[in-house]
Each structure stands twice: as structure tokens, then as C-alpha cells.
Amino acid sequence: MPILTAALMILLQADGGVGAPPLPGNSSALVEMLQNSGPIALGVLALLLFASLYSWTVILGKISLFRKATNESRRFVRAFRKATRLQEIAAIAADYSLSPLSQVFQDVYETYKRQTGGYGPPRNLVPLERSAQTAASEAVTKMERRLTWLATIAAVSPFVGLFGTVMGVVDAFHGLGTAGAATLRAVAPGISEALITTAAGLFVAVPAVVAYNQFTARIRVFASAIDDFCRELLNSLEEIPVRVAPPAARNPGMEVPREAERGVYK
After folding, report:
1. Total domain count, the chain
2. Are 206 and 56 in contact (CB under 8 A)?
3. CB < 8 Å & 24+ apart, contacts of 112-115
4. Which pLDDT belongs to residue 115?
5. Please, are residues 230 and 136 in contact by the beta-carbon 8 Å criterion?
6. Could you tell me which residues come within 8 angstroms of residue 196 by beta carbon, excluding any fewer than 6 positions away?
7. Is residue 266, in this structure, part of any structural domain at all?
8. Alpha-carbon distance 74 to 77, whole Å?
9. 192, 37 Cβ separation under 8 angstroms
10. CB 17: neighbour CB atoms within 10 A?
11. In a domain, 170, yes or no
């Protein structure tokens, strides 16, 4: 802030060395600065307030979503590895709707059912692999939703505050030129605008950039877990044993045993 510092030095020298009055409390000083702010500064502050509220809404929502997704993913993986049939996993997958792993499983299982009717080994793994890749991409994209707004707010807020600072300095020099005497009283509103908008811009930007970096790291962890689960799921489908031709094919009246269809793993 070299421009603002130089402006303050010029104003203090122009004031004739008169001692400044005692500073009020922090709260009253903030209220006084807001009262002295012009329409441009108030507009900048209103915009920054809206950006801050929106960013905190996204931050709190993502914290809750990621926590629930992590817990449900852990429970779903445990259930998946304990299950003996794909139908058992499909029956409980809807209970873990926030887990990206459950979303991937449901999409792959739908493709598997179209191939085999829900039983036996898949005829072709290529469609299942494509379905798994598409489902994984959709799950990651869903988790990244609204994160771009956090990045935008983190990048733009300091410049919005800087705009209020520049306009405050301009107003301060304009007041200095039009006032009958070069005193700090004539330029105090402009200086208050410059200070408060800069602080507000930083106050909005810092939490947004920290949260964006943390959420991006969490999403990379989720993406890695989804890729691992996709490979595990495809391996499980590939390991389903081939069913022996049922005796009912030769004797229509004979009941078909279901034991050959059991086992996600061998």
C-alpha cells in the first residue's frame, strides 16, 4: 500500500502537526467509518458481504457433505466386501446415496444386469469399464460442484476491496482539493473507505482460498478411492464363476439350483 501510505503522510503534514483527538473504541470507530463511507464504498461492502455469505454457505455445506460421504463410503466398502452376492449389495446401495462408491456401483450394476439379467459372469467387460469410468467422472464432478465459485471469490475479493481503496484515495484527494483548509477532517471519509474496503476484501478472500485448497485435496482423495473401487468392482465381476448348464435344460420339471450363482468373489 505505498500509495495509501504516501497519501496519509501528505495529509498529516498538511494538517500542520495538530495532535489527533483520542481514538474511540474499535466498535464505535467501525461504525463511524461506515457512516462516513460513500455510495461506492457501501456498494463494495455490500458485494463483499454477499460473497462472504455465499462462500461460507458453500464451505459449511461441503464440510458436511464430505464428512457424510466419507462415513458412508467406509460402511459401503465394508458391506461390499462382506457380501456374497451382487444382489445383496444392490439391495443396500440406495442406503448409501451420499457415497460416490455407491453411485459407481449402481451404474455399473445396471450395465451388468442389461448384459446378464443379474446372474452369471459378464459377457463383455469393456462396457462395464466404460460405465465405471463414466460413473466415476460424474461422481467427482458432483463433488466439485460450486467449488469454482469459491475460487472466484478468493481471487476477485481482494481486487474488489482494492477498487474501494482506490476510490477512497481518490475521494480523499478530491476532498483535500475542494476543502477550504487542508485538514484530516476534510478527507477522513475517503480514508475510512480505503481502509475498511481493503480489510473487508481480505476477510472474504482468506477463508475462501483456504477452503478451496482443502476441498480440492479432499476431492483428490475421493477420486483415488473411486478409481480403486472401480478396479475392485470389475475384478469382482470378472471372478464370478461360470454357471454350469442347469439340469432343468434337460428336465423342464426339475428345479434349478441357485448355489452356482453365489459369490462376488471365488
Report:
1. 1
2. no
3. 112/86, 112/237
4. 84
5. yes
6. 30, 33, 34, 37, 41, 45, 164
7. no
8. 5
9. yes
10. 7
11. yes
The tens digit of pLDDT for each residue in 131-165 reads 999 999 999 999 999 999 999 999 999 999 999 88
- Is the separation of the CB atoms in 138 and 103 below 8 Å? yes
- Residue 124 near residue 189 (C-beta atoms within 8 A): no
SS (H, E, C) the chain: CHHHHHHHHHHHHHCCCCCCCCCCCHHHHHHHHHHHCCHHHHHHHHHHHHHHHHHHHHHHHHHHHHHHHHHHHHHHHHHHHHCCCHHHHHHHHHHHCCCHHHHHHHHHHHHHHHHHCCCCCCCCHHHHHHHHHHHHHHHHHHHCCCHHHHHHHHHHHHHHHHHHHHHHHHHHHHHHHHCCCCCHHHHHHHHHHHHHHHHHHHHHHHHHHHHHHHHHHHHHHHHHHHHHHHHHHHHHHHCCCCCCCCHHHCCCCCCCCCHHHCCCCC
CB-side neighbour CA atoms (13 Å) of 187: 29
Cα dist. 13→60, 90, 139, 173 in Å? 48, 78, 62, 14
Radius of gyration of the chain (CA): 32
Is the residue at 117 inside a domain? yes
Q: CB within 8 A of 252, min separation 6: which ones? A: none
* CA 199, chain centre distance (Å): 24
| Full-model pTM | 0.73
Give the pLDDT confidence of 247-256 residue by residue, as tens digits.
444 455 544 4
- What residue numbers bound the domain in which 73 lies? 35-240
